[in-house]
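Reopening: structure tokens for the 5-O-phosphono-beta-D-ribofuranosylamine complex, inputs below.
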Amino acid sequence: MKRVAILISGGGSNMLALVRDMDENHPARPVLVASNDPSAGGLAKAAALNIPTAALDHRTYPTREAFEADLAQHIDAASPDIICLAGFMRILTPGFIRRYEGRMLNIHPSLLPKYPGLHTHARALAAGDREAGCTVHEVTADLDAGPILGQARVPVLPGDSEETLAARVLTMEHRLYPAVLRRFAAGDRTPVLLP
Ligand code: GRF
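Re-run output (same inputs, fresh job):
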């Protein structure tokens, strides 16, 4: 049984989708939900599902490294085989990433390699793209650039705003990430492509 730690910063809708998919015939189980923001709504959702949580406040640490050292301590105490970044909004240092490289995944709301970084939907709309989507990739020291483990495409529709496009992509994130984790936890790195 693979043990999965999930890192969040906000509402945790991706975390919930992952947790809900880890049922009795899934090769993995959630063992920790940790956040860099104690007010993250996802923490209460995880606690309600009896998943151990860790609420850190990155603003209370003197350096990025000090925060990551504490975060790593909480992660390692849960002995995870896999770490899933799910709406986690902190840039991680290469030192932290090296610690978990090869078993840390992230979901990014664009069709990488297009639009690494922030404001992905606004950039897709500004470029006049006809389609958008999301990507699950292995986390490496290069931001949003690790090996791709899955992608899901959605149409950009006439009249789309950043909000309507974000909502359409988020729905696909909730399908893609669980499908990728199920495959990754079974030792299969064949990319999941949706639809
Ligand atoms: C969303 O913008 C999603 O596209 C990205 O993280 C943000 C929050 O996700 N992956 P969540 O609801 O906290 O999972």
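The chain has a mean pLDDT of 97. The radius of gyration is 16 Å. Marking as resolved unless the reporter disagrees.
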